[in-house]
């Protein structure tokens, strides 16, 4: 018997019974039994899927409310991981519900599940061959979530196949794709299988780095003393203190040129807050050096070692007074 002939015969039997001389009464009986069962399976699957989506949305809103209510405290690593893991579990649960409901509905039509093993294997092999990238994305997404490489709210830089780079704030991560919000407000969707390397700029803690170019004739000892005082005052600022893990400190000269030298100042911050700290610290440094009569080297700018991300609220007024 050819593969799948059992399911075809079963379907023909159902249609033959419904089209018999007493087909009307049989049709009514079929709808009263199998039809009701099919409707119940469809209704149950729809309710479960709706509940899973509702529970996921409610949990995400709870996280967002906690984050918005305390914007100076970033999400913990465990919270970000729980959110990503919950999305994966919800996606998997919906897939299982659809599969079970589909098999039960086929059985209601008189199609035994065992007769679908052969055709299912052929279809599965064809889909597996044609959807290798999807499988690759799912496997990569599984390891991203389980290894806690990054999560919702993290600022990341992703190196992709082909040499391109995607960076921004993670807005969604599931088994198949990662969605980033760039500094231009665009949402970039990256298949997980194309990620070669991920750099998390907001995991556990971050470092604010500020490079200050000053004239070569400036007194480096005086500059270091000024920067040390700025770091102490900055750390004692009640607005900035909540974002810092230690006081900003000068590292000395990091680059020397004919007409200028670069002094670096660093500070450990809460995850994702290094950009806000860098902006406020640069303003303090420029004013402190100006009061001491030390100017920034001509044609040079006070820069930080990182690029500001998007999705983070910036309160530039704090610390500028």
UniProtKB/TrEMBL annotation:
<dbReference type="InterPro" id="IPR049278">
    <property type="entry name" value="MS_channel_C"/>
</dbReference>
<dbReference type="InterPro" id="IPR010920">
    <property type="entry name" value="LSM_dom_sf"/>
</dbReference>
<protein>
    <submittedName>
        <fullName>MscS family protein</fullName>
    </submittedName>
</protein>
<feature type="transmembrane region" description="Helical">
    <location>
        <begin position="38"/>
        <end position="57"/>
    </location>
</feature>
<keyword id="KW-1003">Cell membrane</keyword>
<dbReference type="InterPro" id="IPR023408">
    <property type="entry name" value="MscS_beta-dom_sf"/>
</dbReference>
<keyword id="KW-1133">Transmembrane helix</keyword>
<dbReference type="GO" id="GO:0008381">
    <property type="term" value="F:mechanosensitive monoatomic ion channel activity"/>
</dbReference>
<feature type="domain" description="Mechanosensitive ion channel MscS C-terminal">
    <location>
        <begin position="209"/>
        <end position="296"/>
    </location>
</feature>
<keyword id="KW-0812">Transmembrane</keyword>
<feature type="region of interest" description="Disordered">
    <location>
        <begin position="301"/>
        <end position="321"/>
    </location>
</feature>
<dbReference type="InterPro" id="IPR006685">
    <property type="entry name" value="MscS_channel_2nd"/>
</dbReference>
<comment type="similarity">
    <text>Belongs to the MscS (TC 1.A.23) family.</text>
</comment>
<dbReference type="Pfam" id="PF21082">
    <property type="entry name" value="MS_channel_3rd"/>
</dbReference>
<keyword id="KW-0472">Membrane</keyword>
<dbReference type="Pfam" id="PF00924">
    <property type="entry name" value="MS_channel_2nd"/>
</dbReference>
<dbReference type="InterPro" id="IPR045276">
    <property type="entry name" value="YbiO_bact"/>
</dbReference>
<dbReference type="InterPro" id="IPR011066">
    <property type="entry name" value="MscS_channel_C_sf"/>
</dbReference>
<dbReference type="GO" id="GO:0005886">
    <property type="term" value="C:plasma membrane"/>
</dbReference>
<feature type="domain" description="Mechanosensitive ion channel MscS">
    <location>
        <begin position="134"/>
        <end position="202"/>
    </location>
</feature>
<dbReference type="InterPro" id="IPR011014">
    <property type="entry name" value="MscS_channel_TM-2"/>
</dbReference>
<feature type="transmembrane region" description="Helical">
    <location>
        <begin position="84"/>
        <end position="107"/>
    </location>
</feature>
């Amino acid at each position: 018997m050819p593969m799948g002939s059992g399911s075809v015969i079963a379907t023909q039997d159902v249609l033959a019974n419904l089209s018999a001389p007493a087909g009307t009464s049989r049709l009514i009986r079929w709808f009263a039994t199998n039809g009701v069962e099919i409707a119940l399976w469809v209704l149950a699957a729809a309710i479960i899927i709706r509940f899973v989506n509702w529970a996921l949305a409610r949990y995400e809103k709870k996280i967002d409310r906690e984050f918005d209510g305390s914007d100076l405290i970033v999400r913990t690593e465990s919270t970000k991981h729980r959110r990503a893991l919950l999305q994966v579990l919800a996606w998997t649960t919906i897939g299982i519900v659809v599969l079970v409901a589909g098999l039960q509905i086929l059985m209601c039509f008189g199609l035994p599940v065992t007769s679908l093993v052969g055709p299912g294997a052929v279809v599965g092999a064809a889909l597996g061959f044609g959807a290798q990238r999807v499988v690759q994305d799912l496997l990569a997404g599984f390891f991203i979530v389980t290894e806690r490489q990054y999560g919702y709210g993290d600022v990341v830089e992703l190196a992709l196949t082909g040499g391109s780079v995607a960076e921004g704030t993670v807005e969604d991560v599931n088994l198949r794709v990662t969605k980033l919000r760039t500094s231009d407000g665009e949402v970039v969707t990256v298949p997980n299988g194309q990620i070669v390397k991920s750099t998390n700029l907001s995991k556990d803690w971050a470092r604010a780095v500020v490079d200050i170019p000053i004239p070569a004739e400036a007194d480096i000892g005086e500059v270091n003393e000024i920067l040390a005082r700025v770091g102490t005052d900055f750390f004692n600022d009640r607005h900035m203190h909540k974002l810092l893990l230690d006081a900003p400190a000068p590292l000395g000269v990091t680059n020397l040129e004919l007409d200028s030298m670069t002094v670096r100042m660093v500070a450990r911050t809460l995850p994702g807050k290094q950009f806000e700290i860098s902006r406020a610290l640069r303003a303090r440094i420029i004013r402190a050096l100006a009061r001491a009569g030390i100017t920034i080297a001509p044609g040079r700018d006070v820069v930080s070692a990182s690029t500001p991300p998007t999705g983070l609220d910036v309160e530039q007024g704090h610390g500028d007074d």
